[in-house]
Amino acid sequence: MEAAAKAAPEAGLKEKISKALSLRAFGTAMMLPLSMILVQVFTMVTVLICKLALNASMHPFVFLVYRNLIAAAAIAPLALIFEREMWKKISLVIWGWISINAALGIVLAMGLYYHGLRATSAAYSVNFLNLIPIITFIIAIMLRAEKLVLTRWPGKMKLLGTLMCVCGAMVVSLFKGRRLHLWATRLLRSHSAATRSPADLHHGMVTGTLFLCGSCLSYALWFIVQARLAKVFPSKYLVTTLTCLLGSLQSFVVGISLGHSRAEWKLKWDLQLLTIVYSGVFNTGVTYVLVSWVISRRGPIYPSMFSPLLLIITTVMDSLLLGTSIYVGSVLGTMLIIVGLYAFLWGKGKELQLTCVAGAAVAPEQKQDGSEEEAREQGGDGMA
């Protein structure tokens, strides 16, 4: 009887613990997709208010200087808390890699993107953001940092997804078709296409497309440099803080060389200040923390699965708020990009799974041989 009386509280305690763990697992499972949806909303709002601010004569490099200063201030406390000891390991070589990282990721990638955004529209420019993994994949193959095995289904799906994304981008850029009259008016006023002639609009679209293509190429090179930097200096928060600071300094130099007047650098209580603060805090600081947390739980492919959501939301809100026209060609091209991106990510995810299984099977034998470095080289790639 005494044993049964003692066993009853223990069983109740185990049941409570199992319920608490199941509730915690359920909460985590719900927070993962909600976090990624929130990241896409942050990015969508940033693109839209940036478009409004750029139309209101805000200069891209002035915006980049202040945005990255605020982003560095948002990430710096995390670097001081979690990576304080990493300061001692910074050398001139590391500073060189961080400088290249800032030049590619901020000055070129972001600078060209915002110039393209100013010349085109928010919905049009977001299409090119979804092409960044594809361009990175192509460059990685050219540099032999990525392998394409066409004898397996993952490799075939990656190739098919790449071709579909490229075709979708060409359709969006070159084909319009019928105009879709979804709603009668726009909700926000913007100094955009209303005051420009058709010749100016065509010239702006061509110039903006070239800027956006250059931004995609810069982002792809930036990811490759990021992979190298992560090997020579494995730090997340400190590297991000220093990259933002150096990127702000480099953007300031470029802005001065472009002849920006002193008045253009003065901040006022207007849309420009709102855009700078919002993008620096939410689109860089909060987004970075959420994406890092999700990657630690679900891996590097998971955040990319939500990128098409940004494309759909931005297209709808850009048309509803700013009055940007939606054509049949843009819808068809967008669908091709979304399907191609998912096909590519599926193939990439399967390859990573196969690599992990193969690495787990080979690891015991390699430990016996004392060749752990070779195991690291054979285990997957850092381009995900």
UniProtKB/TrEMBL annotation:
The chain crosses the membrane at residues 21-49, 61-82, 94-116, 122-145, 157-175, 205-225, 237-259, 271-294, 301-320, 326-345. Residues 365-384 are annotated as: Disordered. InterPro entries: EamA_dom, EmrE-like, WAT1-related. Keywords: Membrane, Transmembrane, Transmembrane helix. SUPFAM superfamilies: Multidrug resistance efflux transporter EmrE (SSF103481). It is a multi-pass membrane protein. Coiled coil: none annotated. It comes from the Eukaryota. The keyword Magnesium does not apply. Residues 35-173, 207-344 form the EamA domain. GO terms for cellular component: membrane. It is found in: Membrane. Belongs to the drug/metabolite transporter (DMT) superfamily. Plant drug/metabolite exporter (P-DME) (TC 2.A.7.4) family. This is WAT1-related protein. It comes from Urochloa decumbens. The lineage of its organism: Eukaryota, Viridiplantae, Streptophyta, Embryophyta, Tracheophyta.
